[in-house]
């Protein structure tokens, strides 16, 4: 699977946790730095950010992709809409949490959220 990382660097422990949760091997990590200009449209910047990943339309629709979204909520929401448009579904996303009492602060994989399943379940509540 390909892990698109729009957040802080992930460690070997994070990757092992992700592989254990998904049952798949992380074949490639694509680190995508997210530094936005608040004076420029986030939609435009997200589009350019995703274009820079370099996947073809066929790859977007067929490769197993996992996303570690950026921390800023508006960028993350815009990114997920962009990815849904390219992929045809919402990608699963990684949720990290801080390890209680760790000094210096450390993070662990809390869960993988299947956004497409969340969407499909929510449709029943229309």
Task: Using the alpha-carbon principal axes, give the shape.
Answer: globular
Biggest sheet: strand arrangement: 2-1-3
Number of domains: 1
Distance between the termini: 33 Å
Specify the structural class: alpha/beta
Q: Estimate the helix proportion, in percent.
A: 40-55%
- Extended strand count: 5
Structural overview:
- With 126 residues, the chain is of the alpha/beta class.
- 40% of the residues lie in helices and 20% in strands.
- The chain has one domain (2-123).
- The chain has helices at residues 12-22, 42-51, 57-62, 73-87, 115-123; strands spanning 2-5, 28-31, 65-68, 93-98, 107-113.
- α1 (12-22) links the parallel β1 (2-5) and β2 (28-31).
- The protein starts with a strand and ends with a helix.
- The relative contact order is 0.18.
- The mean pLDDT is 97.
Q: Notable features of this structure?
A:
two-stranded antiparallel ribbon, 126 residues, globular, alpha/beta, three-stranded parallel beta sheet, 20% strand
Explain the layout of strands and helices.
Layout: E1 2-5, H1 12-22, E2 28-31, H2 42-51, H3 57-62, E3 65-68, H4 73-87, E4 93-98, E5 107-113, H5 115-123
Parallel strand pairs: 1-2, 1-3
Antiparallel strand pairs: 4-5
Helix pairs in contact: 2-4
Brief synopsis:
By secondary structure, the protein is an alpha/beta fold. The protein has one domain (2-123).
């Amino acid at each position: 699977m390909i892990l698109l990382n729009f957040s802080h660097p992930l460690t070997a422990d994070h990757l092992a946790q992700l592989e254990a949760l998904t049952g798949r091997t992380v074949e490639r990590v694509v680190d995508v730095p997210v530094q936005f200009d608040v004076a420029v449209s986030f939609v435009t910047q997200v589009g350019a950010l995703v274009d820079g990943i370099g996947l073809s339309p066929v790859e977007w629709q067929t490769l197993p992709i996992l996303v570690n979204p950026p921390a800023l909520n508006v960028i993350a929401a815009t990114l997920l809409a962009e990815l849904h448009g390219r992929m045809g579904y919402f990608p699963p996303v990684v949720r990290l949490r801080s390890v209680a009492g760790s000094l210096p602060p450390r993070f662990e994989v809390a869960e993988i959220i299947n956004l497409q399943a969340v969407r499909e379940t929510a449709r029943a509540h229309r």
